[in-house]
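Design job #97: recover the sequence.
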């Protein structure tokens, strides 16, 4: 079962008010990967390119969403936090962009769910990329931790 992301995004914007200002109006989720199409205009800096803080926020939230959706679809209600992240800004974002994150293997989500069920918590390592004009402009390497409620 794949979650309806329209309702999920609506709920998320009530939990993280910043998201209402970033221009995100949909999440594309297929059960293994998530894409977040984003307009440049509300995320622009003084140079006319993508603001690094917006990219960092969207990338962080994209990984959080993937982790949360994977757990939700496995019947688990967890608090998810980012425990560690490293960002690399590789190229300027010059137009509307997409933030994407995928499980390297669907077994990663199953293992996470098993750890949470057994130990009450688990972690998931993810690579999140901000892509513009088919080029990776920013990369976040992150560790997300899920704690059963």
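Job complete. Output follows.
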């Amino acid at each position: 079962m794949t979650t309806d992301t329209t309702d999920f995004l609506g709920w998320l914007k009530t939990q993280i008010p910043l998201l209402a200002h970033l221009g995100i109006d949909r999440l594309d989720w297929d059960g293994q990967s998530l894409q977040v199409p984003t307009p440049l205009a509300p995320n622009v800096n003084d140079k006319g390119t993508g603001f690094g803080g917006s990219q960092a926020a969207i990338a962080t939230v994209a990984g959080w969403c993937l982790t949360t959706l994977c757990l939700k679809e496995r019947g688990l209600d967890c608090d998810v936090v980012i425990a560690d992240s490293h960002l690399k800004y590789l190229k300027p974002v010059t137009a509307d962009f997409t933030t994407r994150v995928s499980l390297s293997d669907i077994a990663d989500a199953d293992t996470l769910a098993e750890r949470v069920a057994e130990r009450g918590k688990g972690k998931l390592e993810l690579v999140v990329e901000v892509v513009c004009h088919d080029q990776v402009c920013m990369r976040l390497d992150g560790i997300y931790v899920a704690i059963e409620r």
